[in-house]
Amino acid sequence: MKKILVITLTVLAIMSFKGIDLVGNEFKIVGTVSSDFNGQKVFLAKSINDDVMSKLDSTIVKNGKFTFNGVADKPEQRLIYFEEKLMDGQIAIYAEKGNITINVNAEDIPKSVVGGTLNNNALAKLNVMLIEVGEKEEAFKNEHMDNFSKAKSEGDTETQNRIIQEYSKLTKENNKNYIAFIEENPNSLICAELFPVILKDQDVKAKDLKPIYDKMGPAPKATEMGQKVETYLNQMLANEKAMEATEVGKTAPDFSAATPNGKTLSLNQAKGKVTIIDFWASWCGPCRKENPNVVAMYNELHDKGLNIIGVSLDKDDAKWKGAIEKDNLTWQHISNLQGWDEPIAVQYGVTSIPATVILDKNGVIVARNLRGEELKAKVKELLAE
């Protein structure tokens, strides 16, 4: 969507507009604008991408008004712009059954106010919130960005982290407002568009968001974005459950897969006094870069009880075996050769590699995702017990 519209007090008058009776899926757009616009050509268009619009209809401003009529089988985002004011921006609306009103802000066209139908009224409500969000973020930027840049140039990580944490609080506050909007406007298509914004917060949990999504009406769920959000939330839920089942303190669930020579090897068969489950792949640059450190640690500590079982996210059998040989990875390896669909990675909630899961002598998970000296120190500590 282009620039979001900003609501003003005039929305009260607009939302009380009764219009004329329409039949079927007809819509009528009535715009009110300054008489200075009389004679100007107005276009109804759809966005192809951020730089291209496709014209659908046009009309002329007369006596400070313009009108479009059409049929909408389903609500769709549309743009309205004035030929002589194209560079000043567009007005975003939903073309949908009913009487749609636009009060054009002649001084700032994208700040015009729309209303009259379910989705356009919801859009107007949302813009009240978006203005507040924008003002808060601008104030935060003015207050902190210079200090953040200075701290970054001076290597002051304490100040950087403090500012990042404060911004995170602001993001979470905004997300609470977005969620409240979804709950209050469950049938508006724009609800589905808010989920990607909320999901930018890395701390957000699908177990909290999925019930919010489930309460939405069928219309927003049926949109392309609604379908994408549902798929993503379901994937997140599965990953969260996997992470809970394999968090620190839990006994590592067993698994098995084929070794490079075609035999089947399980985790229980590969355990040592200390066991590292190493998720990697031949195509993973950071994994291959880390391998020499792991090789050195394994050569030093294997005789003292360290075992490693490599779980590869490769798809190509030859490349997997070639990387094992080239990097001198002499510990045990398994893979289902299914890439990111590797069942063991899914079972352990692994969404990025390299990833490690460290087990003690009892097969209990004691740490995850340690690398380098930190990993070696933890292994030595466990071996000494």
Automatic annotation (TrEMBL):
Alphabetized GO MF terms: antioxidant activity; oxidoreductase activity
Official protein name in the record: Thioredoxin domain-containing protein
Pfam families attached to this UniProt entry: AhpC-TSA, DUF4369
Keywords for this protein: Cytochrome c-type biogenesis, Disulfide bond, Redox-active center
Start and end residues of each Thioredoxin domain: 246-385
Main location: other
An annotated GO cellular component: cell envelope
Cellular location(s): Cell envelope
Cross-referenced InterPro entries: AhpC/TSA (IPR000866), DUF4369 (IPR025380), Thioredoxin-like_sf (IPR036249), Thioredoxin_CS (IPR017937), Thioredoxin_domain (IPR013766), Thioredoxin_ResA/DsbE_sf (IPR050553)
Any GO BP annotation: cytochrome complex assembly
